[in-house]
Amino acid sequence: MIHPVLLIAIPLFFAFLLPLISLWSKKSLPYVTTAVMGLNTIIAILVFLEAMKAPIFDIIGGFQPPLGIVLMVGPLGGFLAMIINTAALIISIYSMEMKKEPLLKYYMLTLLLLMGTNGMVLTGDIFNLFVFLEVTSIASYGLASYNKDLKGFEGALKYVILGSIGSTFVLIGIALIYSQLRTLNMLDIARRLGEMDPYTKIVAFASLFLGFGVEAEMFPLNTWVPETYDGAPHPVTAMFSSMSAKSGIFALARVIFTIFAFANYLWFVVIMGLLTVFFGEIVAYVQKDIKRMLAYSSIGQMGMIIMGLGIGTTIAVEGAFFQMFSHAMGKALLFIAAGYMIYAAQTEKMSEMKGIGRNPLIGIPLLIGILSIMGMPPFIGFYGKFYILMGGFSQGYYAIIALFLAASIVEIAYYARFIKIVFQPSTKNYPAPRSTVYVPLILFAIIIVLFGVYPQPVFEVLKHVAAFLAGGA
Amino acid sequence: MEIWSAFGIFVLVPLIGALLSYLARKYAVYLGLIFALVPAIALYPFYGKEMSTVVNIGVKLNLAFDVTTWFFMLMLDTVALASMLFATSYVRKGEGGFSTLMLLGLAGANGVLMARDFLTLYIFWEMMSWSAYILVLRSSGEYARRYMLFAVLSAYLLIMGIGIYYYYTGSFLYSAASGIPLSGWAWILLFLILGFAVKMAVFPLHVWAPYAYRSEQPFVAFLSGGLSKLGTFGIFMAMYSIAGVAILQGFGTFRSISLFGYPFAVLGAFTAFIGTILAIFQDDLRKLLAYSSIGQLGYVMVGLGLGTPLAVGGALFHAFNHAFFKAILFLGAGAVIYRTGKYRISELGGLGYRMPFTFLFVLFAIFALAGIPITSGFISKWMLYEAAIEKKFVLIAPLMLIASVGAFLYCFRILYGVFLGQLDKEHENVKEAPAPMLAAMALLMLPLLIFAIFPGWILKWINEILTGANIGTLKYDTYAYYSSIGGADMLVFWITFMLLFMISMYLFTRKRKVTKVVDQYDNYLAGETPPYVQLHAAHNFYKPLRDTWAPLLRYSVDRAYEKFVKFFIEGFEEIKKMYTENPQDYAAYLGIAFLIFLLVGWWLL
Question: Distance (Å, rounded) from C-alpha B396 to C-alpha B269?
C-alpha cells in the first residue's frame, strides 16, 4: 500500500534538498523539480486508484484518531490530488521558461506550494488543514511577488492582507470548535456536532466559510485575485488557478459537507456563488489586459463551482467536481498561453495581440481551452456546467439559473472578442513558441479533448459524490 | 447493431473525416468531399428503418433513427455534399480548416437529428454551433461574435427548457414526458421553441443571420440550407413529438388551432413579412439572400405553429425546398463572387451572358423561392397558404401573401441586377463557373424539379412523419394533394404548362426571325464618338418603395440590440469600480461579508 503522506513528504523533502542540489549544479534545478512532480503525480495516481476501492486513512505517528493526526483520502480527495499534481507537473514544464533569479527560491516555493495544496486536499484533521493552508499561502505570497516589480508587490501585498485575515478567521473557527468538542478530527467533529452550542456553531461555520472563501475566490473575498494573478509570474498564475484555488474550494466543500452538514444554509451558498459568477464575469468583460481578464474569468468559474456545491444535490456536486477538473486544466492552459502571448507581443493589452493565435501550435490549444471554459461539448468544460445547471433545476432554482446563464453570455462575449483579436489576420511577426511553451499547452489540450469525448472515467469517480455528501471521506 | 451502423455512418464517419482532413491538409477539400459523400449516399438504404440504441460514454447517449430523422438528414447531408463539392474549387488548396469544420458541423447536425434525449441533443447542438462559429470567424471575423452570442443564447434557452423538463421528469429522455402539468409544458415549450427559433432566425432573434451569411459561400449554403433546418426539426420534435398534439390542444383552441401554437404562427408570418421587406432594400447580394432566408423560414414557422396536417406538412415540405433552393442561391452567389470578386448588386450586371449555366440554376432556384409552379416550391407554399386560408386567418394569410409579392421584388432584383442588363466592361472576360460548382448546383436542382412533377413521393414521407407524430394525414396521390378548399393537381398543371409552353415557344421562334440583336453603340449617334455609358440602373433600386416604407424602416431590431448592449456595458463599468484596488476597502469587504454570514446564520438558526 502506498502512503498518501508521501505526496506531502516528497515535495517537502526535496524543497529543502534543492539548496544542496544547487550547490552541485544550478542548471539541474528545473529538471529535479519536474522529476519530483512527476514522481508525485505517479504516487497520486496510485493513491487515487487505492482510494477508489476504499477511503484511505493514513495514521501518522502511530496515534489512533481522533487523537492522532490522520490523512483521510476518499475517492474525491484522491481525484483532486491527482488533478493538482498533474497540473503541477505540466506547469513545471512551462516553469523552465523562467529565467529570472533567484531560481533556487522559485523552485523551493513551487514545491512548497505543491506540498501545501496536496496537504489541504488530503488531510482529515482540521488543524492540519489550517497548517497546510498557511504553507500554501506563504509559498503563494513569495511566488506572487517573485517578479520584484511594483505590480508583483502590490498584488502580493493585497494577497498577504486578505489571506492572513482569512487564515485568522480559519484559526478562530477551529479554536471555537476545539473549545467545545476537544477534537480536531473532521469525522469526529461531524459526528459530535450536535453537542455544540448552536450560536458558537454558527460563528465557527461563518469563520471557516469566510477563511476558505478567500482561497476559493468567493465574492466579495476575491478582491486580491486580479492583482495577484496579474502581478505574479506566468507559470505561478497558472499554478494559483489550478492548484491553490482547487485546494481552497475542496477545503470549502469539506467545511460545508464533511464537517457541518447545514442543509438550510445551502441556498445562501448558492447566492454567494451566483454573486461570484456575476461580478467575475461582468468585470472580466471590461478588462483590457489579458491576464486580468483571465483572472476575473477564473473568479467566475470558481463561482460556478461554489454554486454547484451550494445546490447540494448529487448531480450538482458531481458537476462541481467535474468543473474543478475542467477549470484546473482549462485555466492553466489559458494562463500559459497568455504568458506566451505577453512575452511575444511584449504587452499585456489584448488589443495589441492581433493574429498571435494564427500559429497552430498556440492557436489550436488556445481555442480548445477557450471552448472548454465556455462550456462547449465535447470538451470537459461542458459536463461540469451542464450538471451544475441541471442540479439547480432539480432543486427549482429557476431564477438563479437564468441569471447565471445571463452572466455566462457575458463570458462568451468577452472570450469571443478575445478569439476574434487573436485570430484576425495581421502582418506582425511574433517569435515562434519554444517547446517549453507548446508542450504543456498540447498536453492540457489533449486531456481536455480526451476526457471530453470519453468522460466515463471521470464519472466513475464522481459516483462517490453521494457518499461524500452523506459526510463520508 | 444496425443503429451502430447508422451512428457510425452519420456521426463517426464525418468526425473521422474531420480529423483526417485536418491532418492531411493538402487533400483536405477532397477528403471533405469523400467523407460528406459517404453519409449522403448511405442514407438511401436507411429509408423506412426504425432503430434505437444507447451509447455510453459516461453519459448515456440515446440515439434513434426513424423517418423524421431520415427526412431531415436527406436535406442536410445532400446540401452538405453539394457545398463540399462546390468548395473543391472555391476554397484555397491546402487549407485544412474548412473541411474539418464543415464535417464537424455535419456530424453535429446528424447527431442532433438522431438524438432522443436532451443531453445528447445539447452535446451535438453545441458541437454544430461552435464549428459554425469558427467557420464564420474564418472569413468575417468582425461578425463572428454576433453569431456566437446568438448561438449561445439559443443553447441557453434550450438549457432552460431542458432544465424545467428535468425538474418535472428527472430524466432527459424524450419519451419520459409524462405527468408534467400544463404550466410546466408552457414554459418548457416556450424556451425550447425560442431556442430553436434562434437557429431558424425568427424575428426578433434573427439579427445574427445577415452578418453570419457573409462568410464563405459554400459554408453559408450549408448554414442556411442545412443547419437552419435543425431549428425546424427541433421545433417539430418539441411541439409534436415530445409534447404532442393532445397537450397543445390542452392550452385551448382558436378555430381548432392550439392557442399555444397560434402566437408562433403569427410570429412566423411577421418574420416572413419583415425578412422580405428588408431583403428588398439590400444591395449586398449575400445580405439580400440572408434576409430572404429569414423570410422563407418564417413561412415554415407559420406551418409549425398552426399544426394542422396540411400546415405541418407544408412546413416540412417548404423546409425541404428551402434547403435546396436557398443552397443553390448562395452557391450561385458564391460562383459570382468567385468569378468577379464583387458582391454588391449595383456593381454587377449582365453576367447571364457570361455565366449562362449559373444563371439557369439561379433562375430555377428563384422560381422555387417565388413559388412558381414548375418547381416544388409552389406546392409547399400553396399548402401553407391553404392551411392559413382554410382556417380563415385574416392576419396570417395576408401577411404571407404580401411577403410573397415582396419575394418577387427581390428575386427580380437578383435576376436583373446580377444576371441581366448591361454587362460591365471589366466583366467582359468573366468565365463560366468551374465544373464542380455547376455540378453542385445541378445536384441541388434535381429534387426541386422531381418533386414538382411527383409531389406524391415526398408527401408520402411527410405523411409518414405526420402519422408518426399523431398529427393527422394528408390527402395526396402521386401527382397531387387535396385539401378541403382545393389542393393542387400537378398533372393538370404540367399538361397545361406544356401546351402553353409549346404555343409560346412556337410564337417566340416565329417572332425571333424579325428581331435583330444589336450592340449598344450600334445606333445613330450623329457622328459623335460615344463615351462609355453605364446603362445598368441598379443603384437605389426600388427607391419609391423605400420612400414609402421609410417611416417603418427607421425602427431596427439591430440598433435596439446595440443600444441594449451599450446600456449594459456602461453598467459593467460602474460595477468594475467595486474593485477599488485599495486594500483597506478590501479588508472592509471581508468584515462586511463576515457580518452577513453571521446574520444569515443566526437567522437560519
Answer: 6
Assess if residue B592 is contained within a domain.
yes
Taking a C-beta distance cutoff of 8 angstroms, is the pair A154, A125 a contact? no
Q: Identify the segments of chain A with pLDDT beneath 70.
A: 1, 61-62, 65-67, 472-473
How is A404-430 classified by DSSP, letter by letter? HHHHHHHHHHHHHHHHHHHHS------
Instruction: Check: pTM over 0.95? Answer yes or no.
Output: no
Choose among B170, B586, B597: nearest Cβ to A162: B586
DSSP B139-188: H-HHHHHHHHHHHHHHHHHHHHHHHHHHHHHS--BGGG--S--HHHHHHH
Name residues whose C-beta falls within 8 Å of residue A314's C-beta, 6 or more positions apart in sequence: A391, A465, A466, A469
Q: Is B475 exposed, middle or buried (0-12, 13-18, 19+ CB in 10 A)?
A: middle
State how far residue A121 is from chain B, nearest Cα, in angstroms: 24
Q: How confident is the model at residue B95 (pLDDT cuts 50, 70, 90)?
A: low
Separation CA A194–CA A63 (nearest Å): 26
Q: How far apart are the C-alpha atoms of A363 and B138, rounded to whole Å?
A: 13
Host domain of residue B423: 309-515
Q: Please give the backbone phi and psi of residue A123, each rounded to the nearest 5 degrees, phi first.
A: -70, 150
Residues B455 and B578 in one domain: no
SS3 content of chain B, % helix, strand, coil (to 5): 75, 5, 20
Does residue A4 sit in helix, strand or coil?
Answer: coil
Q: Considering the domain boundaries, does residue B598 fall inside one? A: yes
Nearest to A420 among B58, B145, B152 (CB): B145
| Burial class (CB within 10 angstroms; exposed 0-12, middle 13-18, buried 19+) of B299 | buried
DSSP string, B371-439: T-TTSHHHHHHHHHHHHHHHTT-TTHHHHHHHHHHHHHHHHHHHIIIIISSPPPGGGTTPPPPPHHHHH
The total of structural domains in chain B comes to 2
* Cβ under 8 Å to B: A residues 297-356: none
- Closest to A400 (Cα-Cα) out of A275, A254, A222: A275
